[in-house]
């Protein structure tokens, strides 16, 4: 099965496809010549993207971890790989980057599922607002700590007064 060999020819005739290829070649040649002559500043090769709308994450906002990410990092302990107990049953490599652990590397041990990862690998995962283990999808926050985590998250949001007014109306 699959597409026929000449499937593109059904929608676009061959002369049209060849013309597009020739135009692309000419464009690349002009760019090369301008770059070779030192005139590449006159070409606008960068695409002018519109500014992101209000409320969307920008590159700067993506670099700073969210409040939930900071709270999850506080819940997950950091240790040296050499300090782990039960040396015979532990994992030998990080499931995120697939590199083996060295004795002096900092790792994070998940509280619920006991998987271990390089600190930097799982921190990047957490910074993308992931709240589950990258390997088994078990939640980072243990069941007995969910209420405390939610209260700290709510307090960090800065809208505690609104919550107090909302609950007092019942």
Automatic annotation (TrEMBL):
Keyword Metal-binding found: yes
BP GO annotations: protein ubiquitination
All residue ranges annotated as the RING-type domain in the record: 94-137
Membrane-spanning segments: 20-39
Family matches, as PROSITE patterns: ZF_RING_2 (PS50089)
Keyword Nuclease: no
Top-level taxon of origin: Eukaryota
Any Pfam family hit: zf-RING_2
Keyword vocabulary terms for this entry: Membrane, Metal-binding, Transmembrane, Transmembrane helix, Zinc, Zinc-finger
Record InterPro entries: Znf_RING, Znf_RING/FYVE/PHD
SUPFAM superfamilies: RING/U-box (SSF57850)
UniProt GO molecular function: ubiquitin protein ligase activity; zinc ion binding
Name under which the protein is recorded: RING-type domain-containing protein
């Amino acid at each position: 099965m699959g597409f026929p060999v000449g499937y593109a020819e059904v929608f676009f005739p061959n002369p049209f496809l060849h013309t597009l290829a020739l135009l692309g070649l000419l464009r690349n040649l002009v760019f090369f010549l301008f770059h070779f002559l030192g005139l590449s500043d006159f070409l606008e090769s960068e695409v002018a993207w519109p500014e992101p709308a209000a409320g969307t994450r920008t590159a700067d906002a993506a670099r700073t971890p969210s409040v939930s990410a900071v709270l999850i990092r506080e819940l997950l302990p950091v240790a040296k790989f050499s300090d782990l107990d039960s040396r015979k049953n532990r994992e030998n490599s990080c499931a995120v980057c697939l590199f083996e652990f060295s004795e002096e590397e900092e790792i994070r041990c998940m509280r619920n599922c006991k998987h271990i990862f390089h600190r930097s690998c799982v921190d990047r995962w957490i910074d993308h607002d992931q709240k589950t283990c990258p390997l088994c999808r078990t939640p980072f926050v243990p069941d007995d700590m969910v209420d405390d985590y939610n209260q700290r998250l709510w307090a960090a949001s800065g809208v505690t007064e609104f919550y107090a007014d909302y609950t007092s109306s019942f």
